[in-house]
Design brief:
The complex is a heterodimer of chains A (241) and B (186).
Chain A (H helix, E strand, L loop, with lengths): L2 H11 L6 H29 L6 H10 L2 H11 L11 H13 L3 H4 L15 H6 L8 H19 L5 E2 H5 L4 H16 L3 E6 L4 E6 L21 H8 L5
Antiparallel strand pairs in A: 1-3, 2-3
Chain B lengths: L2 H18 L8 E2 H8 L3 H13 L3 E6 L11 H6 L1 E6 L5 H6 L4 H16 L3 E3 H9 L4 H14 L2 E3 L4 E4 L1 H6 L2 H10 L3
Antiparallel strand pairs in B: 1-3, 2-3, 4-6, 5-6
Helix pairs in contact in B: 1-3, 7-8
Classes of the chains: A mainly alpha (241), B alpha+beta (186).
C-alpha cells in the first residue's frame, strides 16, 4: 500500500470538507493508514531479525530433505536436557518409614456406621425438662405475670406503680432474666406501661387495668433494658431500687 | 583446602544434585530455589559447575522467563530463570536414538519447530499436520504433535495455534537450526 499517496489525497481534499461527518471519515482514514504503517513496521522488524526465513523457502527445503538428512541437521542444533531419575538408599529408607507409618486402607477408608436412634414417645414433662415446651401456655403465663404485677403494686407499689427491679428481681439471676423477658411482653402487649425518668435514672412499671390494644397517638419507642449480673447483684444487696 | 574452597566445593556438589536429579514435573531448577539452597552467590557456584562440566561436554543452560537470552541478567531475572544441564556439543543421529527418539519422530519434531520459527513463532496445528503428513503415516501425525506438546517442545492455544514451548527454548539453538537447514543441500 502506498501510504504517501493516501496521505496526500486526504490532505488535498481536507480544506473542502465542511460538515463534521466528512471530517470524521477523514480521521477514520488516517487511523487505518496508521494501522497499516504499524503492521508494515512489524513486518520490516521481523524480516531484519536473524531468525527471518522465507517460510516457503524453508518448507521447500524441508520437503526435499530425506528424514536422515533432516535428523542429522537437527541434532547439530539440539542440546537435549540431561536429567537423572535414580533412587538412593536415603529415599528408600524414607519411603519405608512412610510405608510403616501409613495406616492400612481398611482403616483409612473406614466409615463410621450411622448412629441408631430408637423411636419412642416423649411425655410433656420430658419436653418441658428439655425446654422444648414451656410449662404453661405463653398467653397463660403472660396473664399470670400481669396478675403478679398487679398484686405486687398493691402490696409494695406507690401511686399504682412499682420500680422495674422491684418487679423483675428474683432470687436467681436466671429467674430475673426470665422475668425481664416476660415483662417486656407485658409492656409490648399493653398489659403494663413502662415509665422512665431519665434524669433520676429510675424506671417504673405500671399495670394497666385492661390490656391496651389501641395504638395511641404517641410515638412508639423501643427501649432496650440490659440486665447485667452486676446490676442483679446490686439489687440483691439492696443498692439498686 | 582453604575454607572458602571447601565451601564452594560443597555448594557445587549440592548444585549438581539439584540440577541433575529431577525435582519437579519440569526438569531444571528455578533461580530462587538455588538461591535458597546455595545462598546469594549461586551464580558463581553455577559458573564453577559449568567449568567442570565443560570437560564432560555438558553445560549449565539458563532459560529466562521472557524467552529471550539476556546478556547481563540482573539478580531478579536470574531468580526467575530456569537452570538446566544440557549437552554442550552435538549428538550424532545414532546417539539420538539412544536418548529414546525414533528417527521419524525426531524428524517430525525438526519440521514442526522449523516451520513455527519461520512463521514468526506460531503456526496453525493443521498446517503443521499437513507438513508432517507428507512423510509420516496419517495415524501418527496427531499422536506425534500431542507428544511434542506433552514433552514441552510445543504448546497449543485454544484456537489450535502451535507455539514453541520451554523445552525448545532450552534445548534448540533456533538460529543455528534455520541456518543449517538453509545450508543443507537436498
Amino acid at each position: 500500500m502506498d501510504v504517501d499517496e493516501s496521505i496526500n489525497t486526504a490532505k488535498e481534499y481536507l480544506p473542502e470538507w465542511k460538515i463534521p461527518e466528512d471530517l470524521c471519515l477523514d480521521a477514520e482514514t488516517i487511523h487505518h493508514i496508521a494501522s497499516v504503517v504499524k503492521l508494515q513496521s512489524e513486518w520490516v522488524k521481523h524480516r531484519s531479525t536473524s531468525l527471518y526465513t522465507d517460510p516457503f523457502l524453508l518448507q521447500e527445503k524441508i520437503m526435499r530433505l530425506d528424514k536422515h538428512r533432516l535428523v542429522a541437521t537437527f541434532v547439530q542444533a539440539w542440546r537435549p536436557i540431561v536429567e537423572f531419575e535414580q533412587i538412593s538408599i536415603h529415599s528408600i529408607m524414607q519411603s519405608l518409614q512412610y510405608w510403616i507409618n501409613l495406616p492400612p486402607l481398611s482403616e483409612r477408608w473406614k466409615q463410621e456406621p450411622p448412629l441408631e436412634v430408637q423411636v419412642g414417645q416423649a411425655s410433656r414433662e420430658e419436653l418441658v425438662q428439655q425446654r422444648i415446651l414451656r410449662e404453661q401456655m405463653f398467653s397463660e403465663e403472660l396473664a399470670g405475670y400481669w396478675e403478679q404485677l398487679k398484686t405486687r403494686v398493691a402490696e409494695k407499689g406507690t401511686k399504682g406503680k412499682i420500680s422495674y427491679w422491684g418487679f423483675v428481681g428474683a432470687d436467681t439471676y436466671d429467674e430475673t432474666v426470665d422475668r425481664a423477658f416476660m415483662t417486656a411482653f407485658l409492656v409490648t402487649y399493653g398489659y403494663a406501661t413502662l415509665e422512665i425518668h431519665p434524669l433520676e435514672e429510675e424506671m417504673f412499671i405500671k399495670p394497666n387495668e385492661k390490656p391496651e390494644t389501641k395504638i395511641s397517638n404517641k410515638q412508639l419507642v423501643s427501649v432496650p433494658i440490659p440486665i447485667p449480673v452486676e446490676d442483679w447483684q446490686k439489687w440483691k444487696r439492696g443498692e439498686l431500687k | 583446602m582453604s575454607k572458602r574452597k571447601a565451601t564452594y566445593a560443597s555448594k557445587v556438589k549440592r548444585a549438581t544434585h539439584m540440577l541433575f536429579y529431577k525435582r519437579h514435573t519440569k526438569p531444571g531448577v528455578k533461580g530462587w530455589e538455588l538461591r535458597k539452597a546455595l545462598g546469594s552467590d549461586y551464580p558463581k557456584v553455577l559458573k564453577v559447575l559449568d567449568d567442570y562440566l565443560k570437560e564432560l561436554d555438558l553445560k549449565v543452560q539458563t532459560v529466562f522467563e521472557n524467552e529471550k537470552p539476556v546478556e547481563k541478567p540482573s539478580l531478579e531475572q536470574l531468580d526467575k530463570a530456569r537452570f538446566l544441564i544440557t549437552l554442550r556439543g552435538e549428538l550424532t543421529p545414532k546417539e539420538a536414538k539412544m536418548v529414546g527418539w525414533r528417527i521419524d519422530d525426531l524428524a517430525g519434531l525438526a519440521i514442526a519447530i522449523s516451520h513455527i520459527i519461520s512463521n514468526k513463532g506460531k503456526a496453525p496445528r493443521k498446517e503443521v499436520e499437513d507438513l508432517l503428513r507428507e512423510k509420516l503415516p496419517n495415524w501418527k501425525v496427531g499422536l506425534n504433535i500431542d507428544r511434542y506438546i506433552r514433552y514441552g517442545y510445543l504448546t497449543q492455544d485454544e484456537s489450535e495455534q502451535l507455539y514453541l514451548d520451554w523445552r525448545t527454548r532450552a534445548e534448540v539453538d533456533q538460529k543455528a537450526l534455520i541456518d543449517l537447514l538453509l545450508r543443507t543441500e537436498a
